[in-house]
Design a protein that fits this description.
Number of strands: 0
Number of helices: 4
Helix content: over 70%
Order of helices and strands: HHHH
Number of domains: 2
Largest sheet: none
């Protein structure tokens, strides 16, 4: 994925930005519920504003930039995946269903065999 070294040191300014971002999210939710008598558009706008401010603050911090780089690299790696064709996916699904059916029959048969052995032959209880 990344050849960048991992940094665990963050400045106090970055910590303040993250705390302010969390406060912005909380303020958005509090505003959403506090304005219960207002229209849904106003309430949604307050919530959205809180989230946008939080995202803007978080992305300016070091941890936000690190997360953004991680997300970009994850998307790049996802594009490298070779996805199966529809025919391959259907075949694999059929194989899985077939195996589940065979396993269910085997477990049912084993359960019935043990039931007969235990109740009828060993304990003598007829059901």
């Amino acid at each position: 994925m990344s050849n960048q070294p991992v940094q665990t040191v963050s400045t106090s300014g970055d910590k303040v930005k993250v705390v302010l971002a969390i406060c912005a999210v909380v303020a958005g939710f509090v505003g959403f519920y506090f304005l219960a008598d207002k229209s849904a558009i106003v309430r949604a706008g307050v919530l959205l504003a809180g989230l946008v401010v939080a995202i803007a603050l978080a992305w300016t911090s070091l941890s936000g930039q690190t997360f953004l780089n991680f997300a970009k690299e994850a998307m790049r790696e996802t594009k490298k995946v070779v996805w199966p064709t529809r025919k391959e996916a259907t075949q694999i699904t059929a194989i899985v269903f077939g195996f589940v059916l065979v396993m269910a029959l085997f477990l049912w048969g084993t359960d019935k065999l043990l039931e007969v052995l235990l109740y009828d032959l060993i304990l003598g209880w007829k059901q």
